[in-house]
Amino acid sequence: MIGRLNHVAIVVPDLDAAVKQYRDVLGADVSSPLDLPDHGVTTVFVNLPNTKIELLLPFGENSPIAKFLENNPSGGMHHVCYEVDDILVARDKLIAEGARVLGNGEPKTGAHGKPVLFLHPKDFSGTLVEIEQV
Ligand SMILES: CC[C@@H](C(=O)O)C(=O)SCCNC(=O)CCNC(=O)[C@H](O)C(C)(C)COP(=O)(O)OP(=O)(O)OC[C@H]1O[C@@H](n2cnc3c(N)ncnc32)[C@H](O)[C@@H]1OP(=O)(O)O
Ligand SMILES: [Co+2]
């Protein structure tokens, strides 16, 4: 059901510092920051030849990543995102298999303008999983 690894997300305490590391130290192609109020995050994408790194900073008062940053003040790996062909088919299969879909279960538009859903980390070996329809 899952296809390519779309991105690995890293929560960071200082987005400017993280951008400088990836762009100036690691020499990567880095996007401009984008505020996504619907998701409670600011994102920067690091474009690698075979996948992307999503750098995340909390945005607004009810960010879903605020507690993660409190628990991991230096930042850390937050989620992996796999591509799927049909997100509703994938969601229904995952629910039938007993996985918990986060939020209200309806896809939201993600950072790439495509539908995304999140799966509870306790159901996937302690790893928060995002699926994105491509
Ligand atoms: C930009 C849009 C989009 C894209 O297109 O790429 C994004 O990526 S947006 C990214 C941010 N959005 C989300 O993360 C949405 C889904 N996340 C959530 O709903 C919550 O973050 C959460 C996963 C339910 C966690 O909620 P939280 O309030 O932070 O913590 P809890 O106390 O409820 O956590 C329960 C349990 O799970 C552990 N946990 C929390 N986050 C993670 C994580 N990222 N990876 C692994 N484990 C995680 C947490 O430690 C708790 O464990 P216990 O203490 O053992 O109970
Ligand atoms: Co993501």
TrEMBL record:
EC top class named in words: isomerase
Enzyme Commission (EC) number: 5.1.99.1
Protein keywords: Isomerase, Metal-binding
Domain of life of the organism encoding this protein: Bacteria
Pfam family, one: Glyoxalase_4
Record's keyword annotation contains Metal-binding: yes
PROSITE patterns: VOC
Keyword Isomerase included in the entry's annotation: yes
An example molecular function term from Gene Ontology annotations: methylmalonyl-CoA epimerase activity
Entry-linked InterPro entries: Glyas_Bleomycin-R_OHBP_Dase, MeMalonyl-CoA_epimerase, MMCE/EMCE_epimerase, VOC_core
Occurrences of domain VOC (ranges): 4-134
Family as reported in the entry's similarity comment: Belongs to the methylmalonyl-CoA epimerase family.
Protein name: Methylmalonyl-CoA epimerase
Record organism: Kordiimonas pumila
Gene this chain is encoded by: mce
